[in-house]
# Entry
Amino acid sequence: MDDGDDLPAPVPALFPAREDRARLDDLLTSALALADERVARGSVMPTIDMVAFREELLRFDFATPQPMDELLMWTIARMEQGMVHMTNPRYFGLFNPGPSFPSQCADRITSVFNPQLASSGSSPLPVELEAHVIRAVARRAGLPPEATGHFATGGSEANYTSLLCALTRAERGFATDGVRAFSGPVSLYASRECHIAWLKVAHQAGVGRSALRLVDTDGKGRMDPRSLARAVAADRAQGAVPVLIVATAGTTGAGMIDPLVECAQIAHDHGVWFHVDAAWGGAALASDRLRDALDGIEHADSVTIDAHKWFATTMGCGMFITRHGHVLSEAFHSSTSFMPSSVAGIDPYINSVQWSRRFLGLRLFLSLAAAGWDGYGAHVERSVEIIEVVRKRLVARGWTAVNESRLAVLCVVPPPGLGDIKAIVRRVLASGRAWVAPATFEGRDVLRICATHGQSTIEDVGELVAALHASD
Ligand SMILES: Cc1ncc(COP(=O)(O)O)c(C=O)c1O
# Structure
C-alpha cells in the first residue's frame, strides 16, 4: 500500500535513464571501433606527454560533475596515447594478447548482469558454466574426469593456489599451524628459467623466498631432471621437506617446455605435488599438431593455464585445474551464515583464494564455443608460423636463433655491427613500429620476439624485421 512516502530520484550520472544510456552506449561502441582501427595502424608505443597528463589530471578534483559523453571521448583519446598497445598487430611482446572478440563480448555481458560468482546460490548458471569450461580444458589435458578447478585473476594466483594445495596435502597441521607444523624447512623446485613470480608465491605463502630452489637447466632452457632429482634428495637428506615440483610448459623468456614426464616421475618418487605451469603454453593443447609437446601434463597434480595469454581472452583470466578437488576444499574451506550456499567442491568462495569474484569464465566459454578447439588450434599454429617466418627472415639477415621452441617465441642474437641488444630494442620501441623485448636465455642476452596477436599479417612481420634494421 502506498503510504505517501517518497524517495529521492536515483543519481542520474550514475544510473542514467534508459534512453540516455542507449545513446551513450551507441556512442561508446562506435568510438571504440574507430579507436581500435587507429590503434592497429598507429604507434605500438605510448605517445603521451606524461608531464602534461599529470597537469591535466589536476583538473579532475571531482568537485564539478562533467558530461559523460565528453568523459568517454576523453578517456578513449587518452587510452590511445597512454599505453603500449597489445591490440596493435605489431606487438610481438610479452604474452599479452590482442583479445578475441567473443571475450570482449563476454565482458560486456558480464558488466551488465554483474553476477557475483562467490557462490552457486547467487549465480547458479555462471558457476556451472565456469565449471563446464574447466572440465573441458582438464579433459583436453588428459586429466581424469574428476578433475576440477576454477578461474583465477591470473597465472600468479593459480600458481599460488598450487603451493597452498601442496602444503595442505603434505602436512595435516598446515591448515592450523602453518609452516610450523612441518618437521623441517619446506622447499619447492622450479627451473632457473621459471616465471620469477614463484619467488612472490613463496613469500606470500609464508614459506619464504629461500624455499624456492632454482634448478639448473640443460643448456637449452629446460629443467635438467638429474639436477632436480639431486636437489630434492639433498634437501631431504638435510632435513628439509620438499613439497612441490613445478615444471614450466612454455617458459616466459623462451617458450621452452621442461621434461614433463621425467619431472612427474621424480615428483611421484618423492611423494611431492607436481604442478605444471602452462600459463602461456597450455593453449597448445588445442592444436593436434603441437599437443605432443605437452605430453606428461596429464600426470600433473595441478595445472595453471592463463586464458588471457595464448587463448587470447581479455585480462586477467587464469585457470587452476587439479585432480584433487578435495585438497582445494581443504585449503579454502570456511563457513558463514550469510552466504547463499556453501557446497564443498562447488562454491568458488570455499574452493579458491578469492571471495567476491567476477564472471571470468564466460570469456573462454564464448571464445571456445565460437571457434571450437579446431579454431583455437588454427590460432595457435598460426602464431607458430608467424614466428617461423620471422626466424627465417632474420637468419637470412645474419641473426642467430638461440632457442629451439616449438611454440611461438623466438630468441635471437643480432649479427655483429647492428649494435647491442638493448640499444636495438630501444631503437625499435622509439620508432613505435613494433614491440619486442630484451631477455636472457641460458645466461645470454637475447632479443625476444613472441607472436601474441591473432591478426598479425605478413606485412606486420616485414615491418618488424625492417624496424630491427635501423637503416630500412
Ligand atoms: C610461465 C608463466 N607463469 C606465470 C605467469 C604469471 O601469470 P600472470 O601474469 O597471469 O599472473 C607468467 C606470465 O607471463 C608466465 O609466463
